[in-house]
Amino acid sequence: MRNIKIIIDKWRRDLPILLLVNTLIAGLCTLVSDMSYLLDNLLISHSIGFSISVINALVFCQAPHLIELPHKFLFLRLIFSIPLGVFCGFKLASWMGAPDVLAYFLVNPNQQWRWLATAALLTTAATGFFIVLYRAQTYRAQLAIEQQQLAEAKQSELAAQLALLQAQIEPHFLFNTLANVRSLITRDAALAQTMLDHLNHYLRASLSRTRKRQVTLAEELDLVMALLAISQIRLGSRLRYQIDVPADLHAALLPPLLLQPLVENALEHGIEPAVEGGEVRIVVDIAEQLLRLRVYDTGLGLNAAANQASGDGVGLPNVRKRLETLYGGQGRLALYPNLPSGVISEIVLPLSRLNH
């Protein structure tokens, strides 16, 4: 089926050229003979041209590996297809009402040699034209295959890079959380159990996200809420948070673990070091047909967050690299001061929604 589809596509592409070449051959044969033979010459020329094309197509259909042979073997294929195509073309034309040139040549060879010689010359010229056309098409097909393979290789490399970036996301607070659980076991076993439940939910959600190319905003918020619930137990009254996301944006799609590093960064470098703690607020909306995610914190300020973004951490640099890789100039991460204190971390990326 694949070979038949290739042949049909090739015929659809080459048919106008075949019609033009057949018509030119008929016109030239008419010029060297008699204008009254124009219709007969058109019928004979098109019959021969289509016969050669059909025979070539049948050979390709039955033995598609022939198309991959070196060009020097193309001559062997033409030796078979051209004489047989000429013979079949003459017989097809005579069947449709044109003079039987072959039979007439056998009876009166002296009167027909000039016409046949001209036809042979033109056929040879047309064959040369189709050889050049065939080679050009073969080169284009090979180039297209190589370009596709290169694109697939780049896509595989991109996927590997993104998988590596996502795999680098290791929650820094994991060790702190485990230490808090250990201390809570002796003081408040119920609260320790609650923290373990949140941690279990967070880790399960985090691991499942790394295996996906895209998640919904609702899934990402579920992960972030588990993170904030754990931090709420650790920090107590020093942490306040709120989430402001319209319901119609819950189906928006984004790369996994994109919002989480912003929240984690706000907690680690903004809220936790501040003596009085602070508030984390998550706001998602649409700006200029782009999805905009902002994380506000009222912590220490921009210097602490900027140091983390340019330092050894993998949080914000990871997010920035993934946005650049996936969206180019359409995806970006920016940090702004949140007056009177704190930071605004903003992600902008193309808006797409999950189709139900």
UniProtKB/TrEMBL annotation:
GO CC list: membrane
Annotated protein name in UniProt: Histidine kinase
A GO term for molecular function: phosphorelay sensor kinase activity
Keywords associated with the record: Kinase, Membrane, Transferase, Transmembrane, Transmembrane helix
Domain (Histidine kinase) ranges: 149-353
Gene3D superfamilies, per database record: Histidine kinase-like ATPase, C-terminal domain (3.30.565.10)
Transmembrane spans: 15-37, 43-61, 73-93, 113-134
Domain of life: Bacteria
Pfam families from the UniProt entry: HATPase_c, His_kinase
PROSITE patterns documented for this protein: HIS_KIN
Source organism phylogeny: Bacteria, Pseudomonadati, Pseudomonadota, Betaproteobacteria, Neisseriales
